[in-house]
Amino acid sequence: MAQVLTFLHTSPAHIPTFDRLVQAIDPTLEVRHVVNEPLLHEAQAAGEVTPGLAQRITGVILAEIDKNPGVVLCTCSTIGPIAEKVNQVAPGKVVRVDRPMAEQAVTLGNRIVVLAALAITFGPTRQLIQEAADQAGKPVQIIELFCETAWPKFKQGDKTGYLREIAAYIELAASRGDVIVLAQASMAGAEEYCQAPLDVPVLSSPRLGLEAAIRLLKQGPCPLIVPTRPQTT
C-alpha cells in the first residue's frame, strides 16, 4: 500500500496553501486532507488544550494512522504539542508543522519575535522555541506580539485583509528582534504585503513543515525524540 501524507487541519483555509506547496515540491506525493475545526474551537473556548481535548486529538490522529499508512502533518500550532506526542506510541508518524521553523529560528539570532493572531498560540510556540534553543545550547529572548486585529478578517474569509493586518505588525516588529516567527500556518506570505523592505528574516511554517514531513515519509517510520514534560497552552 502506498505511503500517504495526511494533513490534519483545524481550518479548510489551509488546504489550498498546502496543495500549492505539494505541487511545487513533489507533485507525485499522495496526500489527503482532514479538517477538524472543533478541535481549535474547543481550545479557544477553554483557553487551553484540556485533558479531554488532548484525548480527542490523539484519537483523531491514531484513527488516521490506522486508515492510511504514512505520516500525519498537523498544521495547527495550538494542538501541535499534543499531536506530536502521538509519536510516543506511533514513532515517526506525526510531524508538527512549526517545529522545523522553530529550529531554524534559533539558528538566526537570539532575539526571536513571535507574531500570532490567536493568543492561545503563544504558549505552545514559546515552549517549542525554548525547547529548540535548549537543544541547541543557545540562550534566546522570546518577544511576543499579538496581531489582535487580524483574526476577525480570517474568520470572515478575507485572506488578503488578514495578511495585510499581519504585515503591519511585521513592520512594527522588524526593529525588535533578529528574526520574526509567524506562529500560525495561516500567516504565511504576510511579509509580501509589507510596504518597505525588511532587514530581518521572517519565518513561516508551511514549507518547512511539509519538507520535514516528506523526508520522514520517504525514510519510513523511525523513533523521534518527543518532549515528555507536561505541555501548557
Summarize the structure.
The chain has 233 residues and is α/β, with parallel strands linked by helices. It has helices spanning 14-25, 37-46, 51-67, 80-85, 99-108, 122-136, 151-155, 159-173, 206-219, and strands spanning 4-9, 31-35, 70-74, 94-96, 111-116, 141-146, 179-182, 202-203.
Structural class: alpha/beta
Number of strands: 8
**CATH class categorisation of the largest domain:** Alpha Beta
Let me know the largest β-sheet. 4 strands, parallel
Can you tell me the residue ranges where pLDDT is under 50 for at least 5 consecutive residues? 221-233
Q: What's the helical proportion of residues?
A: 40-55%
Which topology of the largest domain does CATH recognise? Rossmann fold
Distance between the termini: 37 Å
Order the strands across the largest sheet as they lie in space.
Answer: 2-1-3-4
What can you see in these coordinates?
- The protein contains 9 helices and 8 strands.
- The strands form 2 sheets. Strands 2-1-3-4 form a 4-stranded parallel beta sheet, with helices on both faces. A 4-stranded parallel beta sheet has the order 6-5-7-8, sandwiched between helices.
- The chain is 45% helix and 16% strand.
- α1 (14-25) crosses α9 (206-219) and α5 (99-108) crosses α6 (122-136).
- It has 233 residues and is an alpha/beta fold.
From the structure above, extract its key features.
Rossmann fold; four-stranded parallel β-sheet; 45% helix; alpha/beta; 233 residues; 2 domains; 16% strand
